[in-house]
Amino acid sequence: MLEAGVRAVEEAERRAISGTAAATLVVTSGAGSMDLYAQRLAAHLDVPTITTDVHEHLSRAFGAPLFSRRSLRCVRADVRFVRALRAIDGPVHLPNHHLARYARAARGPYVVTVHDLIRYFDWRGNLPLIHRPGPHERLGLRLDYRGIRRADHVIAVSQTTKRDLVRHLGVPEERITVVYEGVDHELFRPVVTRPLDEPYVLFVGSEQPRKNLPRLLRAFAAVKRDRRLADLKLVKVGRASGGERGFRRRTLAAVRELALERDVVFTGLVPDEDLPAWYSAAECLALPSFYEGFGFPPLEAMACGCPVVVSSAGALPEIAGDAALVVDPHDPAALADALRQVLLDPELRRELARRGRQRAAHFSWQRAAEQTIAVYERLY
User: Fold this and answer.
1) Does domain 200-360 correspond to CATH entry 3.40.50.2000?
2) Cross-strand bridge partners of residue 266
3) CATH of domain 2-182+364-377
4) Pairwise CA distance, residues 275 & 31, whole Å
5) What is the pLDDT of residues 320-339, one digit of tens each?
6) Are the C-beta atoms of 299 and 275 separated by less than 8 Å?
7) What confidence tens digit (pLDDT) does each residue in 148-157 have?
């Protein structure tokens, strides 16, 4: 793997733009949002790259006992990645904060992209957004945050994340640059395919506690009491969240408690190429999260002409701007009212769809790449 990584760096250096300051971008394999960030950024940057599966192993070891096969595989991936980092001569860009734990292996200056501090809040807060980290995870998190504090520069994917970095990790503001993530506008656009005959509210994401799906189910049940909305469905796109099957059990329990067995549709994981149809045909997207460091689904929905309802927490109001209805995530009655407004007012749906397309147009991977290059130039 080390030799392959070095060859990848050499190949990328040959095609790098002459005279342009560049860092070696670490590209993580996998299908998580942070992996996709690295992959999409790499597609728009002409810089040296290395590809690693270390983040996949970290994700699979999430919540695993210290002495387990998953943890041991993660250790082996750690060793391979450290060797690859040590082979790089020059600046390095670590594309997500969980790679900051390896930063001491970098021989030159390094940039870290921080997407959120969710695991920090799970560690230090009262109510877990995912779950409490165990001893092994806490050790990794300590190394993550140490690597972030020592970074030559930090990219935050939102102003919300930047504020969290300053407040909770003490990173100086002058060492943080906000670079918003992008939307693939060639993929996410309005389409006419309808994947479900009935009208539906769409939810895209995992079932981690931070996603606040039980309150959305309660709001949906309240909305269903209106006879005009008797045929309405709630479509949940995405897995429960990897190996965290306990989240699905809690979701199903809430569905049964609210007698929504016939009204909630679980699609499972949907390929990216099929997502635009689900967005385009939805009456609206609802994402009432307690915390998001950025939030792709609202922007993807907006790009497809889908009206959006989001919570007032985390980065969601920042990302959505004036193109969405914003509600208190702790208030299912307010969420139900917002859903009713969108579902029963065609003019409001059209206006939100219009604003949403305009808002989504401001977020592109080309712009993110240009701003990232400007960060690299600060390292020279």
Assistant:
1) yes
2) 236
3) 3.40.50.2000
4) 14
5) 999 999 999 999 999 999 99
6) no
7) 999 999 999 9
